[in-house]
C-alpha cells in the first residue's frame, strides 16, 4: 500500500503572536497551535541547567547514557530485540502498559506516558485534520518505552529514553551534556571518533546505527510488522529524539535525499511532541474509538514485539 502525502509548507517563517483575548505568556505558531512559554514545572522547555525538581535526575541519566551507549552495546541490543520474540499484542494493549512509567530523561514533564501520547496526538489532529497517519504517529511514537517493562527485560532508563545520536562516528558537541561522552570507550577509538567514522557522506540514516532506545525499537516493530504508515511516519518514530539533527542541524552529512524530505515532517511533528507537554488531561475513553480506527487502518490486530 502506497500513501501519498503533501509536503508541509516550511519555507515561510511562522508568525509569533498573542492570540486575541489570550494570555500574553502564550505564543501562536503556524497552523494555530498554541505554544506555552513554560513547561509543566514553570520552566523553559528543554532547559537542562534550570534548577527544577528534575535537574539532578536528568543530568545523572545523561551521564550514564553517554558512557554506556557504545557501538558494541547498541549492536547487541538491536540484534537481540530485533528478533521481536518477546510477546504478541495490539497497539492499544501496549499503550496501556505505559501507564506505569515516567521518563527520567524528560526535564519538562513527570506524568505517565499515556498522557503525553494523547496530548501529542490530539494537538496534531486539531491542526492537521486530514493527515490521519500523523495523528497515529503522534499516538504511538513513544511505545518503544515498553522496554522498561519487566516482560521486555526491564531495561534501565538510560537504554530506553533520552536524546538519540549516531553510534560509530564522532559525537557532535551539540549533544546535551556532551562532556560525559569522554568516558565512553568509543570516544577514544580511532575507528569511531572521526566525522564519518564507519559511514560515508550521504549514506542515508537507514544505514546509520543510532543509540539504542525506544525510538529505534518502535521503528523496528512498525517496520517488521509491515505497518502501512508512510515513510515519513516511520522516520518520525525512529528519529523524534534525534535532537542534534532536527534542532541543531548536526549529522546532516550522513543524510540522503529521502531523509531530507522526511525531515520536513519531523520538524512539524517535533513542535507537538515537545510543546504539548502540560498537565492538561485527555479523556481517554472519548478519543479511544477514533484512534482504534487508525490502528486498524495502519497496523495488524496483533504485532510481534
Q: Given the helix and strand composition, which structural class is it?
A: mainly alpha
What would you report as the Rg, rounded to the nearest angstrom? 19 Å
Helix content: 25-40%
Strand count, sense and closure of the main sheet? 2 strands, antiparallel
Q: Which band does the percent of strand residues land in?
A: under 5%
- Uncertain spans, ≥5 residues at pLDDT below 50? 9-31, 36-43
**DSSP helical segment count:** 10
Pfam families: MIOX (PF05153)
Protein name: Inositol oxygenase
Catalytic activity: myo-inositol + O2 = D-glucuronate + H2O + H(+)
Cofactor: Fe cation
Notes on the protein architecture:
- The protein is mostly helical and 305 residues long.
- The chain has ten helices and six strands; from the N terminus they run E-E-H-H-E-H-H-H-E-E-H-H-H-H-H-E.
- The protein has helices at 55-68, 71-81, 91-97, 113-127, 132-140, 214-224, 231-239, 243-246, 257-275, 284-298; strands spanning 26-28, 34-36, 88-89, 166-167, 209-210, 303-304.
- It has a two-stranded antiparallel ribbon. The chain has a two-stranded antiparallel ribbon with strand order 3-6. A two-stranded antiparallel sheet has the order 4-5.
- Helix 4 packs across helix 9 (257-275) and helix 5 runs parallel beside helix 7.
- It is globular, with a radius of gyration of 19 Å.
- It starts with 25 loop residues before the first strand and ends with a strand.
- It catalyses: myo-inositol + O2 = D-glucuronate + H2O + H(+).
- It is an enzyme of class 1 (oxidoreductase).
Amino acid at each position: 500500500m502506497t500513501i501519498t502525502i503533501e509536503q508541509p509548507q516550511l519555507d515561510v517563517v511562522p508568525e509569533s503572536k498573542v492570540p486575541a483575548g489570550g494570555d500574553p505568556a502564550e505564543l501562536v505558531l503556524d497552523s494555530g497551535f498554541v505554544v506555552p512559554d513554560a513547561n509543566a514545572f514553570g520552566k523553559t522547555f528543554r532547559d537542562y541547567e534550570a534548577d527544577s525538581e528534575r535537574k539532578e535526575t536528568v543530568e545523572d541519566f545523561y551521564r550514564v547514557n553517554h558512557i554506556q551507549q557504545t557501538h558494541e552495546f547498541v549492536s547487541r541490543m538491536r540484534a537481540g530485540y530485533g528478533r521481536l520474540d518477546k510477546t504478541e499484542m495490539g497497539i492499544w494493549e501496549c499503550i496501556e502498559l505505559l501507564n506505569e512509567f515516567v521518563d527520567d530523561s524528560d526535564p519538562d514533564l513527570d506524568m505517565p506516558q499515556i498522557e503525553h501520547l494523547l496530548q501529542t496526538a490530539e494537538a496534531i489532529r486539531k491542526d492537521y485534520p486530514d493527515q490521519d497517519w500523523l495523528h497515529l504517529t503522534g499516538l504511538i511514537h513513544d511505545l518503544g518505552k515498553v522496554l522498561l517493562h519487566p516482560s521486555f527485560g526491564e531495561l534501565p532508563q538510560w537504554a530506553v529514553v533520552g536524546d538519540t545520536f549516531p553510534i560509530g562516528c564522532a559525537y557532535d558537541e551539540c549533544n546535551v551534556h556532551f562532556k560525559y561522552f569522554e568516558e565512553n570507550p568509543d570516544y577514544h577509538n580511532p575507528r569511531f571518533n572521526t566525522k564519518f567514522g564507519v559511514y560515508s557522506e550521504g549514506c542515508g540514516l537507514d544505514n546509520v546505527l543510532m543509540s539504542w532506545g525506544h525510538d529505534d525499537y518502535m521503528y523496528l516493530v512498525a517496520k517488521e510488522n509491515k505497518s502501512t504508515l508512510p515513510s515519513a511516519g516511520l522516520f518520525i518514530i525512529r528519529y523524534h529524539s534525534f535532537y542534534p539533527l532536527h534542532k541543531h542541524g548536526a549529522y546532516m552529512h550522513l543524510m540522503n535525499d529521502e531523509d531530507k524530505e522526511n525531515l520536513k515532517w519531523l520538524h512539524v511533528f517535533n513542535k507537538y511532541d515537545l510543546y504539548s507537554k502540560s498537565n492538561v488531561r485527555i479523556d481517554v475513553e472519548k478519543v479511544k474509538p477514533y484512534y482504534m480506527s487508525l490502528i486498524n487502518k495502519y497496523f495488524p490486530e496483533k504485532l510481534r514485539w
